[in-house]
Amino acid sequence: MDKMPAWADAVLVPLISILLAAALSALVILAIGENPVDAFRLMVDGALMRSAGWGYTLYYTTNFIFTGLCVAVAFHAKMFNIGGEGQAMIGGLGVALVCLFIPFPHWSVGLLVATLAAGAFGALWALIPAYLQAKRGSHIVITTIMFNFIASAVLNYVLVNVLRPQGAMDPATAKFPEATRLPTFQDIFATAENPLFRGSPANVTFFLAVLACVAFWFLMWRTKLGYEIRAFGHSESAARYAGISPVRITIVAMLISGGLAGMMALNTTMGEAERLVMNATEGAGFIGIAVALMGRSHPVGIFLAALLFGFLYQGGAELALWTNIPRELITVIQALVILFTGALDNMVRMPLERIFLATRRRNG
Amino acid sequence: MTLMTKFLGASAALALTAGAALADPALVYDLGGKFDKSFNEAAYNGAEAYAAETGGAYRDIELQSEAQREQALRRFAEAGFNPVVTTGFSMSTPIASVAADYPDTKFVTIDGFVNPDEHPNVLSILFSEHEGSYLVGMMAAMASESGTVGFVGGMDVPLIRKFACGYAQGVMAANPDATVIANMTGTTPAAWNDPVKGSELAKAQVSQGADVIYAAAGGTGLGVLQTAADEGILSVGVDSNQNHLHPGKVLTSMLKRVDVAVQEAMSAGADLETGVMVLGLAENGVGYALDENNEALVSEEMKAAVDAAREQIIAGEIAVHDYSSDDSCPVLNF
Question: ipTM of the assembly?
């Protein structure tokens, strides 16, 4: 068998990619006259050494888990869903509508209904590109990208003309009623003498995201539908021969994908801002692509990759706060990690594969 | 174990440096970024002026995401920075949710409004942009030969309508027969930084006969000023003094002294008086710019009329209608 062992594929390749990205980032930081060791220490200290830092890291992680799973579902069916961003925006609209117009007695009921609304809105937004792909052969990459722009325009129209409170400057809805406030980690874990997670936005949707990971694993590897999706992804003709309808699988996979993207809006809209703002998704839909690639479309990998990007986002914020590294360079550092783990995957994988094969040949 | 002690040592060292920064001021720029040639840059200039004058230091941050708004406020407050100055109306909601947790820290929101009864440690600084716009409106009407003047706004929010409404009132006061063409660039924050669209709007207004155009649009305004200079008509700049951008082509600039507000808030330090501060003509918070770049354009008669109107507004003899007071404008339909 001419493959390297699974552990090397799942652990070694991403690890080397991250190290390469870190080395290059260090050079970038050196080039502008800052100390990369201090910068890294600051990132670790701000993101992982304080409970409030963890609160932010896990908040970002929650976003990336949802969008990562969203992209991964589509990957398994060999589709590239670039539309997570737009699906999440529209999902946010669903969350805002139910939170604003349904008087919930308790947040748990609110969360349940809002989850359904977010999922439904996101899924419906993915339905049109899915239909076009399945029935008309319009390429899903193109249509989902275009739907991101349409989603942004729709959201803009609704926020500015319909949901904006009188006299407000921001294109944003009014604050949601108090009953829809989700418990944050601070509410759950902090005690009077030990104020953990103070002021950080991580909330119960994190557990929802973990639950989604488990459900994703169950769906993909333990159900008939998951088997069909994976079979379709491996070979469309074989799947068709086995009696799997390509139209059905394309549409169902995209609906699940869009629904997961929509649920990401729960965290930002209901959990953090408690109102719907124009820029609620903040590129998480695109980060999801990197997360899914890096996580090999497996829930455990996605969870870890999401954690890494959560760390990069929160650590980046700390850099912006306490150093003079401009925010454009922080974006460069984040982009380097995406580049190495996502796009330049084969650059690490191929030499590594060759090394493994060479050692095996010698031993054998 | 050694790694752990190293980390602990690092965080202890960090805590020490954070403690040393006690009572330094901090500045939070809105998403537009520090160097936008307009509003945020004015705040930056104010902070630099504070640093130059007092020899003090300050910390600043350019936000990258919505979630960082509250985070930046909390981290600065926890590290002992005081006051924490913020620019842009989007910061008022985060300040309202954070301020109560840090009663000893003073927060400043420029252009935003936070209820001072609920949050006694917040200073809301507002500007009477309608008054300053009224003055440049008068000048525009007097400089116009066609009797048609233009207005290009950035994002269509009540704040910018307040600029437009004050401007139109000034135009009508100087020339009751004048026509004001008002356009907004867009409805999203992207409208603050779209010089190409600004240029298109200016061209459209020129074709409708406008020969003086006032741009209240942040970075978008740079396109308006450029097009006006290319088309051989006059323009009016905003926020900072933009006369120098096209000498002899910019009639004047409506000054909004964000820099002064930032500098004074920082200089006051922890003793900053909170509440609501409205900076108008009387406080020199707004005004019009006159320098060597536009002195040939501003006639004696023009200057006399505008200065007289300024005195009358300060004395209360002329009341300039504020759009944001009732969301309507008597002389301009949007």
Answer: 0.79
Q: What is the CATH number of the domain that holds B172?
A: 3.40.50.2300
Which residues of B fall within a CB distance of 8 Å from A58? none
By Cβ distance, the residue of B11, B65, B90 closest to A45 is B11
pLDDT tens-digit profile of B84-128?
999 988 898 899 989 999 999 999 999 988 999 999 999 999 999
Phi-psi region of B56 (alpha: psi -120 to 50; beta: other; left: phi over 0): beta
Per-residue pLDDT of A219-230, as tens digits, reads: 999 999 999 999
Residue of chain B with shortest Cα separation from A316: B64
Residues B243 and B313 in one domain: yes
Q: Is B260 part of any domain?
A: no
Nearest CA in chain A to B27: A321
């005690």: which residue's tokens?
Answer: A191
Domain final residue pick, B73, B104, B127: B127
**In angstroms, what separates the C-alpha of B6 from chain A's closest C-alpha?**
10
- Kindly compute the dihedral angle of the four CA atoms of residues B153, B159, B163, B168, in this order, to the nearest 10 degrees: 90
Query: How confident is the model over B4-40, as pLDDT tens digits?
Result: 444 444 444 444 444 444 579 999 998 777 887 778 8
CA distance B38 to B160: 14
Name the nearest CA neighbour of B266 among B139, B110, B32: B110
- Residue type at position A273: A
Range of the domain at B37: 15-127
Q: In B11-42, which positions are buried (b, 16+ CB within 10 angstroms) versus exposed (e)?
A: beebeeeeeebeebbbbbbbbbbbebbbbbbb
**Which chain A residue has its CA at the smallest distance from B62's CA?**
A327
Beta bridge partners of B149: B180
Q: Which tens digits make up the pLDDT trace of B177-233?
A: 999 999 999 877 778 888 999 999 999 999 999 999 999 998 899 999 999 999 999
Tell me if chain A has a CB within 8 Å of the CB of B40: no
B238-272: burial string, b at 16+ Cβ within 10 Å, e else: bbbbbbebbeebbbbbbbbbbbbbbbbbbbeeeeb
DSSP string, B77-105: HHTT--SEEEESGGGHHHHHHHGGG-TTS
> For residue B49, which of B25, B82, B76, B69 has the smallest C-alpha distance?
B25
Same structural domain, B47 and B171: no
- Residues B183, B310, single domain; the answer is yes
Tell me the chain A residues in contact with residue B324 when contact means C-beta distances shorter than 8 Å.
167
* Interface probe, candidates A155, A181, A281, A322, chain B, greatest B C-beta count within 10 A: A322
